[in-house]
Amino acid sequence: MDKDEADRLIEKAKLCLRSGRKDRGLQLLYEAQKIYPSTRARVLIDAILRNGGSASQETNHVPPPSGWRDEDIGNQETRTTNHDEKKTYTEEQRQGVFRIKNCKDFYEILGVDKGASDEDLKKAYRKLALKFHPDKNFAPGATDAFKAIGNAYAVLSNPEKRQQYDQFGEQSPTSNVPHRSGNSRPGHYRNFYRDFEADISPEELFNIFFGGRFPTGNVHVYTNQGASYSQFYQPRRRRANERREEVVEENQSQNTFTALLQLLPVLVLILISVFTQMMATNPPYSLFYKPAMGLVVSRETQHMGVPYYVDKSFQKEYRGAVLEELEKSIESDYIEHLQSSCWKEKQQKSDLANLGQLYRDERLKQKAESMRLDNCEKLQRLVGRLRVK
């Protein structure tokens, strides 16, 4: 894999050299040498240096995290250089992109502390999203910075994902892997897209905040773990927006009445269900102790010895063949209950073991191994008893 990656970088470097971008080509060759040293890359590096290429790339270049793909950055640079020479960027924008690229966690990306409130997260996202949006920031890597900002907010604004990130984010397997490019900050090497994936694309998140009305007419495509998201930004006149809002308001009044008519059958069914439940009598037995229903007298079935609870008047109503039929139903319910509970216990144990393996947590693994399957054991004993009979 390292050799293939190095060959890919060498081919990209050759394309850069053909287009006159020596510094970029030299940078890619240095990266290829760090991944998989080869004579092919060494010869090209020597040739560039002899012809006046920059020799400082090896020492000054900080490779981006794996979530920042070189092909994305290369394509963005090509678009900036060849397709629209008027799209320039400032040194402040370039430095901002590098800051986002080298952040060690989501909190640092948004520039907030770990105790930040939802309002603080929103303010930080609004500011950074407008600053790094590809329609405004044309610095190399701005698209990836915009994706990282959106991913950070999407995770931290979700209470469940934020709790998981706070618990496991700093202990993620990828954060402990040494940087293959020799980065001097291995602890900061993170894959923002594989550790904690957001459930919404950066573009969709931006549209939620700003209504998709960023003032340009460009098309941008963002990639997130192989999935593509494209959005066309088009300037809209105020009159058109006002007219559309008026039409929406008119339609809402019409749709409200239509929705009530559509919900009417559902409401009728709900009322019938509630009425039926009110008229229904209490069951004659329960597998569990239920004093609120008067099921407090303990009994066992004659065939399997399954425990169940009934009310005080049970013996007057259920005798002989009627009692036999009822106890068959009780035993059948009990077996189904054990099977369902056993499956849940096994699933819980399996999930716990998988979590322990995923996060390399020995405590979770030991807890999974020591977890008892009580209902499964009861089911086995019951089946064994039936076989003996």
From TrEMBL:
<dbReference type="Pfam" id="PF09320">
    <property type="entry name" value="DUF1977"/>
</dbReference>
<dbReference type="InterPro" id="IPR015399">
    <property type="entry name" value="DUF1977_DnaJ-like"/>
</dbReference>
<keyword id="KW-0143">Chaperone</keyword>
<keyword id="KW-0256">Endoplasmic reticulum</keyword>
<keyword id="KW-0812">Transmembrane</keyword>
<feature type="region of interest" description="Disordered">
    <location>
        <begin position="54"/>
        <end position="90"/>
    </location>
</feature>
<feature type="domain" description="J">
    <location>
        <begin position="105"/>
        <end position="169"/>
    </location>
</feature>
<dbReference type="InterPro" id="IPR051100">
    <property type="entry name" value="DnaJ_subfamily_B/C"/>
</dbReference>
<dbReference type="GO" id="GO:0030544">
    <property type="term" value="F:Hsp70 protein binding"/>
</dbReference>
<dbReference type="InterPro" id="IPR018253">
    <property type="entry name" value="DnaJ_domain_CS"/>
</dbReference>
<dbReference type="GO" id="GO:0005789">
    <property type="term" value="C:endoplasmic reticulum membrane"/>
</dbReference>
<feature type="compositionally biased region" description="Polar residues">
    <location>
        <begin position="165"/>
        <end position="184"/>
    </location>
</feature>
<feature type="compositionally biased region" description="Basic and acidic residues">
    <location>
        <begin position="80"/>
        <end position="90"/>
    </location>
</feature>
<keyword id="KW-1133">Transmembrane helix</keyword>
<dbReference type="GO" id="GO:0071218">
    <property type="term" value="P:cellular response to misfolded protein"/>
</dbReference>
<protein>
    <recommendedName>
        <fullName>J domain-containing protein</fullName>
    </recommendedName>
</protein>
<feature type="region of interest" description="Disordered">
    <location>
        <begin position="162"/>
        <end position="188"/>
    </location>
</feature>
<dbReference type="InterPro" id="IPR001623">
    <property type="entry name" value="DnaJ_domain"/>
</dbReference>
<feature type="transmembrane region" description="Helical">
    <location>
        <begin position="259"/>
        <end position="280"/>
    </location>
</feature>
<dbReference type="Pfam" id="PF00226">
    <property type="entry name" value="DnaJ"/>
</dbReference>
<keyword id="KW-0472">Membrane</keyword>
<dbReference type="InterPro" id="IPR036869">
    <property type="entry name" value="J_dom_sf"/>
</dbReference>
